[in-house]
Design brief:
Number of strands: 8
CATH topology: Rossmann fold
Order of helices and strands: HEEEEHEHEHHHHHEHEHH
Distance between the termini: 27 Å
Number of helices: 11
Number of domains: 1
Strand order of the largest sheet: 1-2-4-3-5-6-7-8
């Protein structure tokens, strides 16, 4: 099965320049570069970029490495993984996808963005990749989506690396209110590499976007993502979803089974006042409760975007979880 499908007649192409610009930025330092993928989701395109062996290359029983799927935080595109991909230079496939309306993926036309819709898109992507159970690497909101999928579709998930994952029991009203206000005012650099740092502190202003210059692939990609009109609407929709899904997430966690796969939770140590950071870290540590395969680690000097501040730590966690998965698969 190939990882790219032809567009239906009449479908809009990928947002002008976005996919190409992000691909250029993600390819820097990645052996073999990256390649695009596309999946039809009832008439809209879900798109991604991937590195490593092409589709159809499957490990034999007890050998090889699982495919790794990167799930970005609230409002962020595949571009957020630019610091991590070179660290994940490895023999297995690595896939960074854009949720509906973000980056190069087309917007969901449903009246309201839903939790089930986002989980369904991720489920469809994993089934389409046809590479066996995957290791999911989820940052912030992406970490919550990864946990939901691991509980609801365990056959698709081999392991989890949760990068300062969001949690329904940590939604301070002051942070949510300021975050929503800044998003509506357009004052946050939505969907970009540094958004996690701004979200974590909210007392720091986001740096002004750098003007794209020749040879600056990251700046060009950031500019391309920001320039597309669907981006800001999608970020606002995700922000509303994360705020209203708290009760639903709490009920699903309580009713769902414990995680049955290797799990590593990485907690940031900077970016929030000490008391809030301690509360956030405590609920993150609780994610591994009830499983004998859970590891919780603090990452010194890292803000909310741990994969930007300490990509080598995240890459090491991915390799360690993948190693545990390979060991478990051996006859």
């Amino acid at each position: 099965m190939t990882s790219r499908r032809s567009a239906r007649p009449g479908r809009a192409p990928a947002p002008t320049g976005v996919l190409e610009a992000v691909a250029e930025a993600l390819a820097e330092g990645v052996p073999g570069g990256v390649r695009p993928g596309e999946l039809d989701r009832d008439g809209r395109a879900l798109r991604w970029l991937e590195a490593g062996p092409g589709p159809g290359v499957k490990p034999g029983p007890g050998e090889g490495v699982p495919v790794v799927v990167l799930i970005a935080g609230m409002g962020t595109s595949a571009l957020t993984w630019a610091p991590l991909l070179p660290e994940l230079a490895r023999p297995g496939r690595v896939v960074a996808y854009d949720r509906a309306g973000l980056g190069a993926s087309e917007p969901d036309q449903a009246p309201v963005l839903t939790l089930d819709g986002q989980v369904a898109d991720l489920t469809a992507l994993l089934r389409h990749l046809d590479a066996g159970p995957a290791v999911l690497v989820g940052h912030s909101w992406g970490g919550q989506l990864a946990q939901l999928l691991a509980r609801e579709r365990p056959e698709l998930v081999a392991g989890l690396v949760l990068v300062d994952p969001a949690h329904e029991d940590f939604r301070p009203r002051a942070i949510s209110a300021v975050e929503s206000l800044l998003l509506r005012a357009g004052l946050l650099r939505v969907g970009l590499l540094r958004v996690g740092l701004v979200r974590a502190g909210l007392l720091r202003a986001a740096p002004a976007p750098a003007a794209p210059v020749a040879g600056d692939a990251l700046a060009r990609a950031e500019a391309a993502v920001l320039a597309h009109p669907h981006q800001r609407r999608a970020v606002l929709a995700e922000n509303r979803l994360t705020n209203r899904a708290t009760g639903q997430l709490r009920r699903r966690r309580a009713a769902g089974p414990p995680l049955r796969v290797p799990v590593t939770v990485l907690s940031a140590t900077t970016g929030l006042p000490r008391g809030l950071r301690a509360r956030f870290t405590a609920v993150q540590a609780g994610i591994t409760a009830g499983t004998d395969q859970g590891v919780h680690l603090l990452v010194p000097g890292a803000g909310h975007a741990v994969h930007a501040d300490r990509p080598e730590v995240v890459a090491a966690a991915v390799r360690e979880v993948s190693g545990r998965v390979r060991t478990a698969r051996r006859p």
